[in-house]
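Q: Could you predict the 3D structure of UDP-N-acetylmuramoylalanine--D-glutamate ligase?
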Amino acid sequence: MRDIKDYVHKKVLVLGLAKSGVGAANLLHRLGAFVTVNDNKPLSENPEAQGLLEQGITVICGSHPVELLDDGFELIVKNPGIPYHNEMIQAAIEKGIPIITEVELAYQISEAPFIAITGTNGKTTTTTLIFEMLKAGNKAPLIAGNIGTVASEVAQQATSENTIVIELSSFQLMGITTFKPRIAILTNLYEAHLDYHGTKGEYWSAKANITKYQTEEDYFIVNGDQESTFEIGQKSKADCVPFSTREFQSNGAYVLDDYLYFKDEKIIEISDIVLPGAHNLENILSAVAAAKLTNVSNEAIVEVLTTFTGVKHRLQYIGEIEGRKFYNDSKATNILATEKALTAFKTPIVLLAGGLDRGNGFDELIPFLHNVKTVVTFGQTAPKIEEVAQKAGIKTILRVDNVEKAVPVAFTHSNAGDVILLSPACASWDQYKTFEVRGDIFINAVHKLK
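A: Sure. Here are the predicted structure tokens for UDP-N-acetylmuramoylalanine--D-glutamate ligase:
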């Protein structure tokens, strides 16, 4: 950890807790700041805030009183989930108080360089792949951010011998002022999070912040098959390294004649890669580029690509029973994610789908259902998905109470060679607390069949 004096006796407000807020408050306290924590959850229901209070940190809970900003704060560290149109944030902006997110703090104290990954889809898989490749290549990686320990905690333990691999959201990237990853990756860009950002342009601009402070000494890996991401790469000061599933890239990663290449180097035959799906091939290409730029050997990269079966709940291979292969894609909480999952397989599919009804239809799925022989539905959206399955000409459509009951029904209506795929196209909250809980129930139900 770098010994910085920037925060000694500095009055800082940590706005919003959760893991990132707790991490930021603890780090700032360690750095000598006068820390006040403000969280909306009442203190009696807030063990995180109680723990900070016991350390002597000032804690104000139960609401976000705007008048708190009159106390002379020099900096606000904002929970990424709090939008900028929040009343408290707007008042802080009017007062000219700088606002950052926890990842900026982590960067300022870290001795280790960062590999940072963002994008609309594929962040978690790409981050995990890079971590595994660096680990196989003995590069002492540490994983941080949305899929690991919060960055400010990881950065305190990291040395110059480590590399921090971090997944970043657009929310986090709006709160950086110096963050400069050695390698940045923009996997792709689609319209998303408009309730937070307001417009597509604001969302894309937030994502582009990942390269904002990079220099000519850094690398920016971008999707060469997407005009929007490639344009951001061309405007970056960093060395732009494109990846493509369609075209040769002299300075990047690409597919040619059923092989994966980095620059002029043949890495692996595509058929030897275990992780299925065209969208995952994009994730793999960007991960390979990052690994090669970190001097990971081809042998280590190949070792990962021939054994890595996916991140949990993201098109995760569970196993095979009597010729049927089971995949858990519970993270597919929207139609686009399910479309990508369906395109990953050429064999007949038994699709398990349904969940929270957000008022949308599912007709967009119809072109992607040509390989689906049976649909098993559950949850609030069951009738809507059944209607779409009928439109697509699927003959076997079955409704069950929940995911646990869907698994044996799907098995009964399948044959050897089929894929049984949980890819709900819906959020889980009508029946399950999280998509992780839904996925775990699916996994357990599959194991019961064995």
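Q: Anything worth pointing out?
A: The longest strand covers residues 34-39.
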